[in-house]
Please model this.
Amino acid sequence: MLPNNISSAGVSASEIPDGFSLAGPNNSSGGGGGGGPSDTAAEQAKQRQAQREAILEQAMTPDALARLRRVKLVKKDRASAVEGMIANMAMQGKLDSKVTEGKLIEMLEGIVGAQQKKEGDKGKISIQRKRTTIDSDDDDDDDEDLL
Model:
């Protein structure tokens, strides 16, 4: 496990001393049993994620990529939806230029609008007050009748 002030980002395999690996705390290679199907599935998922990150880095400006990562910290579903949109557009060749921060904001607002239309009144709070049919305060304002 690496200390808190050292990250594994940007470290090549040749820079790692013998007996050490880039594996994190969840990827320990000790214990019983060899690599099974879960290892290959995890490897494939890791490769897909790395490929997606590479596509996003090529298709987006650094400012837009930084904003997307900040959004991902708060709203993972929205960020992953935008990531998917951008990756699909890049792979299909529909992007004329890199996605800027302004374009990213427009895409996020579009997703928020679509989600609100989809949810309808689900996320809305409406207050309905009960109205009484007999209201003695309408006819007179003196409180002598209450005594």
